[in-house]
Amino acid sequence: MSTVAFAYGVRAATDFLDAHQLSARTPFQTRGWWRAWMREAADAEGATPVLIHMTRTGRPALVAGLQLHQDGSTAVLRPLSWPWADYHEVAEVGDASPTGPEPDIGGLAEAIDRCQREFGARLELSNLIAGGPLLRAVSELGAAPRPSETVFRLDLTDPDVVRRVSERRDMRRKRRRIERLGTLRLTCADTPARVAARLPAFIALHVQQWRDRPDAVAPFDGGVVDRTYAAVAAEPSSTVRLHELWLDETLLAGWFGFRHDRTYYAYRAAYDLSHRRDSPGHLLTAAMVTELAAQGTDTFDLTRGAYAYKLELPSSSTLTMAASLEQPCRVNH
Q: Is 327 exposed, middle or buried (0-12, 13-18, 19+ CB in 10 A)?
């Protein structure tokens, strides 16, 4: 027997998350990420959260996060926390077991179809994990998958990849040059309190780097962006890590990301423009790769965006997927 329930609006969705533990495939479906984004960013994005909770006897209980927009006269359902999240997928209630039963893809498809009809909304999904339950479910409803964005990853289980990143000839030269000025050290804030203490300095570094640049994407603005980062960092389940590279007491570069299920997700970086010639961002990446590999991290996920620095690394690439379904007739009660 299967049941479907909707948690509509920030309060109802937050209450649901407060009452349930979730297992997430990426950090962008953790309870902490969803809860923080809904509380701080949903209103600014003109989005109303909708959590679909689907249960069927003997199968994992799934939660699909969507957000409802009004585009003129058209209602649109997009993934929850779009466009902030780099990956979209369903979560599971409780502890997901890799040897447990398969998710009920047919039931998930029925639940999504019911939600679409409930709101009379077009479905527009992007950055879906290829082969994941969410993409499989909407494909069953007739959506034709298409490429969304390219993501890049470093395999930290391959010693050759780690060596090629950490011991690049140009990086060794730049490291030697900058170390004539002082001592390089890598630090990592790995608890909500430690991240909160270091976040203002990271924000200031990013603001300095991107000030007055027309190509800045969602820059820190002293408002909703800053508050959302702080809210995500304050959530223990979000698994935020803030790595920083220092030259003595001078902050050279930082990376705000997540360590989730043996993968590090690199979300936002910043570096000191006055040290640009020494490539502090590259030096930070090299130091992080070495440390994360030693700590047992399997993958360094550089996330979406075909930026030049990613192409210079010995990374592999893959595609996330997009899918859409037209607006159905709304159900009349």
A: middle
> What pTM value is reported for the model?
0.93
- Helix locations, the chain, DSSP H: 10-19, 31-40, 105-119, 133-140, 159-166, 169-179, 192-210, 224-234, 280-294, 308-312
Q: What is the largest CA-CA distance in the chain?
A: 73
Going 53 to 55 to 61 to 64, the CA torsion angle's sign is: negative
- The closest of 165, 203, 190 to 288, measured between CA atoms, is 165
**Do residues 205 and 254 lie in contact, with contact meaning Cβ atoms separated by under 8 Å?**
yes
Mean pLDDT by 10 residues, the chain (333 residues): 88 95 95 97 97 82 95 94 97 78 90 94 97 97 96 96 90 88 96 98 96 90 97 96 97 98 97 93 95 98 88 91 82 49
Structure-block tokens of residue 222: 């002293």
Structure tokens at 217: 């994407």
Which tokens belong to 38? Answer: 């809904």
> Residue 93: enclosing H or E segment and its boundaries?
strand 91-93
Q: Are strands 299-304 and 263-271 parallel, antiparallel or unpaired?
A: parallel
Q: Using only the alpha carbons of the chain, give its radius of gyration.
A: 21
Instruction: Give the residue among 56, 55, 51, 53 at the shortest CA–CA distance from 66.
Output: 51
CB 315 within 8 A of CB 153: yes
**What is the distance between the alpha carbons of residues 245 and 286, in angstroms, rounded to a whole number?**
10
Please state, as a whole number, how many other Cβ atoms lie within 10 Å of the Cβ of residue 217: 9
Our measurement of the distance from residue 161's CA atom to the centroid of its chain's CA atoms, rounded to an integer in Å, reads: 23
SS3 category, 81 = coil
- Residue identified by tokens 């495939």 is 25
Separation of alpha carbons 325 and 14, rounded Å: 27
Q: Which residues contact 218 (CB under 8 A, 6 or more apart)?
A: 84, 225
